[in-house]
Amino acid sequence: MKSITDIFKIRKDERWLAMVSVVVFSFLNFLTVNMYWRRFSVLSGHYHRLFVRWFRISGFDPLTYEVISYWDTAYNVYRHPLLAFFMWPFAQLNQLLMTLTGKNFATVITAIIVIFCSLYSAIFLFRIFKDIIMVKMREAYLLTALTFSMAFIMLSAMVPDHFIMSMFALTLTLYLSGKKLRNGSALNMWQTIAMFILTAGISLNNGLKIFLAALVTRRKRFFEWRYLLLAVVLPCAMIWCFARWEYRTYVWPKEMARNEVKAKKNREYTEKIRQQVRDLIGSKDSAAVEALTKKIKQQKAVEKYRRDHKKIWNKNTGKPIAQGEFMRWTDKTTSRWDVAVECLFGEGIQLHRGYLLGDVLRNRPLIVRYDTNYISGYINYLAEVVIILLFIAGLICAFVRKRHEHSGSLSTGEGGGRGLLLTALSFFLMDMALHMGLGFGINEIYIMSAHYLFVLPIGMAYLFKAIETRKRLSVAIYTVCALTTVWCFAWNIINIIGYCL
Q1: How many CB atoms within 10 Å of residue 244?
Q2: Rounded distance between C-alpha atoms, residue 67 and residue 74, angstroms
Q3: What would the mean pLDDT of 77-104 be, rounded to a whole number?
């Protein structure tokens, strides 16, 4: 228990970071709460309809507001199997406040959760830079600031979606893994299970990253049959069985009720057309009436398909690789280059002013470009290039520069060796394989930025570490990184404030 409390204890050299972080994240969440308080603080009998209809910050979902307003498994139970249960205590607190005040405090309670996760994501990243990679204090501050100056990490720290919670769990995993790597030890069975339950409970696919971290730290020991059985196979089976139980208990009855309502409306719709056919042809021939009724229904279905095909949410969805329960969500036709430039490393890091914080399922084209009619558009692309080049330079310093050294192990060496970077890169590459490779969620890939963009500053830290004895080069790189950070923060915060106010 003491080791757990030590993890969350703010150290003396982290107090300024913590204070500044709390101020910044509180301001960001104030913008969100202020934007929706008047509408969302009113008690309602239809919270899902209320929040989904009116919440408009990019493509983020307001389901946490719904769950805290009236507890239910509103999240997709297979993607977020434990998230609703993590929110249960906060829902009970909100019910008490509702009873006492007659107001819904879901926005405020969610803001507190988001601020906590954002704060400790920043703290864990700072520790990774300073204690694991062992860059200088000023560089650790800078790289932490750069991370949270990125547009959709900043936005994740102010919206009621699960992404900042996932970032909290992933940065905690990286920090713990980095400590193990520096000490020459590995994640044990109970640490693996606990981190998997936390991370996979929030977002199931991120749970796989815990096993990637365990693989890097344990190496051959990862494949010991007892560890594989108890720390990998059993937790996966348990959380999947729990998700199935959750679906049958909470989701399936509601789906059956909706299907029954839908079937009833369809019967009434069919009978209405049938009666119109009878009035039109004046025939009592039931076969002729049914044939014409079927033809009219098919014609209306085709017309609806054509109308839907012209809607923006359909235009922004590419063709799947194959049909099937999961493969139908893939995308093989969307341009990966355009997505990489304008969405992955574009919108994710710097907002586009065109269609500012629009939703690709409502009013935003998939590809929006920076406006090069103004100098700011060129600066946007330049900042994107600088961040990518600094990241690549960090990878080169970590892997190429050290090839001639005989380290003998990924878990040893300066700053934890390359093991931490390998772990972080495995997280990043897993997301790239899913989103850029298979195309899952590629039409709004920037929404998931908090799952992977923090890997870029981690890579840059190895560049700072490699050039720390070369004063002029170190100052030059630091200055470039600092200017990029200031630009990204100023650009994004000005656009966010303009949107929220």
Answers
A1: 13
A2: 6
A3: 96
